[in-house]
Amino acid sequence: MENASVPVVLMAFFISWIGCWFPLAVISAVAIHWKPTKPLPPEQKLPLIVTLYLLAPLVLWGVIFLSKRSFADYGLIVNISLLSSLGLGFGLGLLSLGMTFTVQLWLGWCEFEKSHLKLLPSILPPIFLVALLVGGTEELVFRGFVLTELERDYPIWVAAAISSFIFAVLHLVWEQQETLPQLPGLWLMGMMLVMARVADKGSLGIAWGLHAALVWAIATIDTAQLITYTGKVSEWFTGKYKKPLAGMAGVVCVLVTGLIIWLISIE
Asked: pTM for the full model?
């Protein structure tokens, strides 16, 4: 695989990843009596997500072994700098999303359910761990492996556009109806995360932190139902199906975060 073409390497990885996960997915689906015609509730989807993301680094290790590369080639350099970048990205992600919802609250587009704060102590730790896993795995796969491989054949921003497209489209695996309106926002998020890796001089630290923070915050808000939309404006402003990336507010959040990252990168 050392001299294999980029499409072959990418296809080999994704086929191997899904192939290894499929038996586990079938066993989980049978155990929970899931029918493909019915959407999975979050608590039943979690085991599928966790097993899928835990397998990715193992499968990627196999690709790395065969291609004689290393995780460092894909941006995963384990050192103190990675932790500081991870913290920087996490803080930036919480800040950008916090500002987005603050503006919406000020405009009267949504309301904050204070009575639901009592749910946070029990849900914050597990959601945090899942967010770190999801953010880290998706960054290693898409901004690490896929982006780096595409850069063998394309300029950085062409590779970024293609990897971000793959990143966005593969989210359709879980929920097609709710994901379709998010595709432009997911693509922009992918481009923003590429910019984070560039700003971090090739490391995945900032991108991982950003991604994990966004997953953690949004999943926490959804699980605890901390935000109620007032219907004062169209859901295309706040996010169709209550998904921030499917609305103007989420897209602006991503663009502003990208601008901040760009300003960091030129310092």
From this structure: 0.93
